[in-house]
Amino acid sequence: MRLLLGSLFALAIAAMVGLGATWLALTRGTAFGAVAIGAWTAWPKSGTRDVDPYARAAIARSGELPVGSGDGVAFVARTDDDARPLDGRCDVRISGITPQARFWTLTLYDPQGHLIGNAIERQGFTSQEIVRNADGSFEIVVAPRTRAGNWLPTSGVDSYMLVLRLYDSPVGVATRAAREAPMPSVVQSCS
Amino acid sequence: MIRWLLWLLAGALLGGIVHLVAVLILPRTATQDAYSRLSPIAPVNAVAALPQPTAQSEVMPFMDPAFASAVCRYDLDSGPIKLTVPISPAYTSVSFYTRRGVAYYAINDRSAGRRQIELQLMTAAQRADLPEEEDVTAADRLIVESPSATGLIVMRALAPEPGLMPVAQAALSRATCKSEPLAAER
Questions:
Q1: Is A8 an 8 Å CB contact of chain B?
Q2: Which residues of B touch A163 (CB under 8 A)?
Q3: Is A27 an 8 Å CB contact of chain B?
Q4: What is the pTM of this model?
Q5: What pLDDT is stored for residue A65 in this prediction?
Q6: What is the pLDDT of residues B93-103, one digit of tens each?
């Protein structure tokens, strides 16, 4: 009797630990080989055949197709530079320069990777669309209400994520530090 | 008390194994992966344009709305695939994925270096069957080896501004993806 109870207990723990850890790993994103620069994180290995099993499972679960490493690299920001989650009711300024790339796009998604509807049908910018300063730097304002300049509407959602994709860029698996890949700052201000 | 701690430890160890097995098995059992999502709209060994993602409808999450895209769902069982993709004015790329969504190869217009991206996709066995001299003489022929017999080729053309989307879509509409049995080549 004690043996039976004990093994049932052990099996229950096993199911909880095993499935709980799997769920956590796949929803929080624990793929290895992350390149974190400021608020931005990329997983260049997810676009190669050396993709690790966690990234493989997460990709299969979400149904996305990662950007191939011969195509480009995707940097994701879920927080601002102070590690506060991005809030669609606040103003976020993305300013600075991007790493070398032939083109880049910045796109706003909900936390599951779906586009968010808005009245002006704008979900992102390409590197050719934005208004730049004389020195080539730029500023994009992600905010719920209309702004002059490069304005990306949030539609006031609770949380969202930004994806900056660099196409035909030397940034990739070998990139380690911010010196090689200067990413724009992400500053959030809530009124 | 000790006995229960031991059971707890055994359970935790077993849980670790369950976790690893679940992670490894998941790609094989996922029913909503990219290949399954694309199967209803993409015929085998033909190019199908993907609808532009909008907030209301999208085939896959995390699609880049600045790109026009098309897909060829390939099956190499009946022979290698010949792929041609005309280059759009801004930026064009072709990415190859296995049945399980592993991006094993990607090329862009600049590395292809021509007016159109032209290549052959085959399995390692089909490549080994190629007549030797053919492999050598056609040195400029681009051959991509697929690790799996089925998979996805995703062609994407950038529209640097929304007004240029029709140009990007037009370029992709001329892409071709055809099965070419090896025997016919000889």
A1: no
A2: 62
A3: no
A4: 0.89
A5: 94
A6: 999 999 999 99
